[in-house]
Amino acid sequence: MLNEIYRETKENMEKSIESLKRDYKTLRTGKVTTSVLDGVRIDYYGTMTDLNQVGSVLAADATTIVINPWEKNLLGPIEQAISAANIGVHPNNDGNLIKLFFPPMTVEQRKESAKGAKVMTDNAKIAIRNIRKHSNDEIKVLHKDKELTDDENKKALDEIQKITDSYVTKADETLKAKEQEILTV
What we know:
57% of the residues lie in helices and 15% in strands. By secondary structure, it is an alpha+beta fold. The chain has two domains: 2-26 and 106-183, Ribosome-recycling factor (Topoisomerase I, Chain A, domain 4); 34-101, Gyrase A, domain 2 (2-Layer Sandwich), CATH 3.30.1360.40. A four-stranded antiparallel beta sheet has the order 3-4-6-5, covered by helices on one side. A hairpin with a 4-residue loop joins strand 5 (92-93) and strand 6. Helix 1 packs antiparallel against helix 3, helix 1 (2-24) packs parallel to helix 4 and helix 3 runs antiparallel to helix 4 (150-183). The chain is elongated and about 75 Å long.
């Protein structure tokens, strides 16, 4: 019973860390990645569709993304969707491809991006602490229903705290690595 609560707690906290890593991909670092376009959707024959489902999206080099739509009539809608997404660059349409030229990041932009990473990490830590609270509540119910002794209850709460501490540390380590990546020129 307690092992089930521990397992569930670890699974949910691991999901929070994975979600944090996915969120980090939306941040701009020194090298541009195609994930900055993950939220961009276009109207594809009446259906809102992810950009990468209507053409190839490639990072040509550290500052350029090239979008090659599978249908040339989509160039206009793709260009409009990218402009509306406000990702910090204007699309260049040459009639066959759309190119996005990202200027090198300034020190100020890098600091802002690092601040964004910190906010994302703080949100992940809040999620981890909420999971801890939920697990502790489950343990307290078991104790109240006399399914756990006082000693077992204390040990279980301590174990949940150890698990929580390890995942908060993981979140901090991921932030440290991400800040290093962002601030390295």
